[in-house]
Write a structure and sequence with these properties.
The complex is a heterodimer. Chain A is mainly alpha-helical. Chain A is built from 15 helices and four strands. In chain A, strands 1-4 form a two-stranded antiparallel sheet. Chain A has a two-stranded antiparallel ribbon with strand order 2-3. Chain B has a single domain, classed as ABC transporter involved in vitamin B12 uptake, BtuC (Orthogonal Bundle), CATH 1.10.3470. In chain B, 76% of the residues lie in helices and 3% in strands. In chain B, strand 1 and strand 2 (171-174) form a beta hairpin. The chains are: A mainly alpha, B mainly alpha.
Chain lengths: 337, 353
């Protein structure tokens, strides 16, 4: 390959969505760094990850689902349910490790339950997971009602709050391991190709012999399990559990994935983009906190970002289509002349 | 048999099942709860159904076009708060103006959703998930953590929830229930007889065909969102009248109950099927369960959401599995009759030769 081709490739990359994200990220980081000198310190950077670590863990599996042209709105409720089950068990004298296993189990079961209705019965995932969003949250509330349960053993709290390897806490290690695993599976394995193919066209995939039901079943079960893990990590970090734990997190999670350039219609997207958008959302929230902007406004900004992340590419496509059409419409006339 | 099949549509079977289910649920609760069928309970349930039903009718319009509006709860909360605040500061505003303000405000927020969905071609889930957060944020910022207080509202709006159209003994048909019924009937007629209503079904049944047939799809979808917003605004006004004290969490979760109502009521966002009446029936069933659970001492009221979710799932699954089979049966039996007729004609011709 000539160096010119290489430069061209870099230019293409920059013109793509990921390039745009990179520029946005640099701008946000530069602005934040200028505002606060402590911003770029390793402590603050880890803290910034740590504050939303559960959401970004879930965002990884959400990327798989949306590329697969499905969605799971119930992840935040599942986070709450697994944490509440752990707390409920602990309150009844069950040791924490057993509670953790049961929390994970309820995640797997909840994921299988979603998968059953979507992959086997064939209902739209949006409706199914909207129903289970209400249902799992309801079950979490049934367990804890309006109580708050804390005072877990010290080792459990430490797992969530203190660093494990070097400066990294457990949740961050889990995240980076899952990220590596996700990249390998989605971008370098047959299963990953199936996820893309099904996302492009479920029918084509089925006629080509892809076991569509099995892939979807695996994805939803994994989503339940990972959401449960994220919920348990969140419980460890907070040191206390309430029925509304992680309420509304699906908004942030879906925003991160869509902002990362994953198409809501399925079939395209990359984990590199998702990782960039995770960094953008984290830095943006951190920057807004530094600028004394309240949590409510931050949520509103995330909402706007979510809409823009789909609207902007749509408008860009429309403009490109119109230009192409004009160019094509212009050609025959030139030929006539 | 043939005549019967022609007269009863699958939707009517569906709606009769909900009515039956509602009766069964009411009966079951009456065996568990003392003094269940009281006039007070009827009045309470009917007033709270009225609000959900108005939102559910709006949700129906959007649902028919294969879209969702997850922002209705925030629209209800925002209009309830904004109108309440305005009335607090200007006690002399005429009732009609206040209602129109609520409807107009709701329509504006609906229009914002509609523009993005219909013209920006952003999926409705994304838009309304975003505006669910955005409208609530605007409300929180606007309110500055203040509460609209009953004591500061004008007299007429406080009397509104207790205003009756007719009373049978202690059982009242409240004005708000009347408003909800008018909305349901009006939109049922719109859906059934106006071209706009029929086009909503056409788009839901086959968006591509509707486009090819030359329907202004974008405008139709846009208008559905505007109407949904306007109805949510009206519901926001009713919410204000019913509760008086409005905080920033007003209307939270109404998007879920309204979607539950339309889904249970048989409105499908896959095949352009469903009616405003169905949405009302769904709202009644859901709210009856909701209010009964609160009164049932044996069981924690926290079960309501768990049951609500399960109910939505079962309703959708029943639709997908049973109703589709029924519809197929309907069409197949018609095709069969045609085929039989063809065969008998052929036989007749054969015997002549």
């Amino acid at each position: 390959m000539s160096s010119e081709g290489f430069l061209l490739r870099i230019w293409r990359r920059f013109k793509s969505w990921e390039g745009l994200l990179l520029v946005v990220l640099v701008v946000i980081i530069a602005t934040n760094a200028e505002r606060s000198p402590a911003y770029l310190s390793i402590g603050n950077q880890i803290n910034l990850f740590q504050l939303s670590i559960e959401k970004i863990i879930v965002a990884l599996i959400m990327a798989f689902l949306i590329i697969n042209a499905e969605i799971d709105l119930s992840v935040a409720s599942m986070m709450g349910l697994s944490a509440c089950l752990l707390a409920w068990m602990y309150e009844r004298g069950v040791p924490v490790p057993v509670g953790l296993l049961l929390g994970l189990l309820v995640g797997v079961l909840g994921g299988l339950f979603n998968g059953f209705w979507i992959a086997i019965v064939g209902l739209p995932s949006l409706v199914v997971t909207l129903a289970t969003l209400i249902m799992y949250r309801g079950l979490a509330r049934v367990l804890l009602e309006d109580r708050s349960i804390g005072h877990f053993p010290e080792w459990f709290d430490a797992l969530g709050q203190q660093s494990l390897v070097g400066p990294l806490p457990l949740a961050m290690i889990v995240f980076f391991l899952l990220l590596a695993l996700a990249i390998v599976i989605l971008q370098y394995s047959a299963f990953g190709r199936y996820v893309f193919v099904i996302g492009n066209s479920s029918d084509v995939a089925r006629y080509s012999g892809v076991k569509v039901r099995r892939v979807k079943m695996i994805l939803f079960t994994a989503a339940g399990a990972i959401a449960a893990i994220a919920g348990l990590l969140f419980a460890a970090r907070l040191g206390a559990v309430r029925g509304d734990l992680a309420n509304g997190f699906e908004l942030d999670v879906i925003t991160m994935v869509l902002l990362g350039g994953v198409s809501i219609f399925g079939g395209s997207g990359s984990l590199f983009g998702v990782f960039l958008s995770i960094l953008i959302v984290l830095n943006l929230r951190n920057g807004m906190s530094l600028a004394n902007i309240t949590g409510h406004v931050q949520t509103g900004v995330i909402g706007v970002l979510l809409i823009l992340s789909v609207l902007v590419p749509n408008l860009a496509n429309q403009v490109r289509d119109t230009l192409n059409r004009r160019r094509q419409a212009g050609r025959p006339q030139e030929a006539d002349a | 048999m043939r005549g019967l099949r022609h007269r009863i549509r699958p939707e009517q079977v569906r709606e009769s099942v909900i009515v039956l289910l509602t009766v069964v649920v009411a009966f079951l609760f009456s065996t568990q709860i003392d003094n269940y069928f009281s006039a007070r309970f009827f009045n309470r349930v009917s007033t709270s159904v009225a609000i959900i039903a108005v939102v559910a009718v709006g949700q129906t319009l959007v649902f028919l076009t294969r879209n969702y509006d997850l922002s209705v709860g925030s629209i209800v909360g925002f209009t309830a708060y904004f109108v309440g605040q305005t009335l607090t500061h200007n006690n002399e505003i005429a009732p009609l103006v206040a209602v129109l303000l609520a409807i107009g405000l709701g329509a504006m927020m609906g229009a914002f959703n509609g523009v993005l969905v219909a013209y920006g071609r952003v999926p409705a889930v994304i838009v309304t998930l975003g505006t669910l957060a955005l409208y609530r944020t605007i409300l929180v910022e606007y309110s500055d953590a203040q509460t609209v207080l009953t004591a500061l509202l004008p007299e007429w709006i406080l009397d509104l929830p207790r205003a009756n159209i007719v009373s049978f003994g202690d059982v009242d048909i409240r004005l708000m229930v009347g408003v909800a019924l008018v909305v349901v009937i009006l939109f049922q007629l719109v859906l059934k007889y106006l071209p706009y209503g029929r086009r909503l079904y056409a788009i839901g049944s086959n968006p591509d065909a509707a486009e090819i047939a030359g329907f202004p799809s974008q405008r139709i979808v846009f208008l559905a969102f505007v109407l949904c917003g306007a109805l949510s605004g009206l519901a926001g006004f009713m919410f204000l009248a019913r509760f008086g004290n409005i905080t920033v969490v007003a209307g939270l979760g109404l998007e879920l109950s309204s979607i539950a109502a339309v889904v249970v009521g048989g409105v499908s966002n896959q095949g352009g099927a469903g009616t405003a009446t169905g949405a009302l029936l769904g709202a009644i069933l859901i709210d009856l369960i909701d209010n009964s659970l609160i009164r049932w001492p044996e069981i924690s009221e926290f079960w309501r959401d768990a049951l609500l979710g399960l109910l939505i799932l079962l309703a959708v699954a029943a639709d997908a599995v049973i109703m589709n089979r029924l519809r197929n049966l309907w069409t197949r039996s018609e095709l069969q009759m045609e085929a039989e007729a063809d065969v008998s004609i052929a036989q007749e011709q054969g015997s002549h030769v």
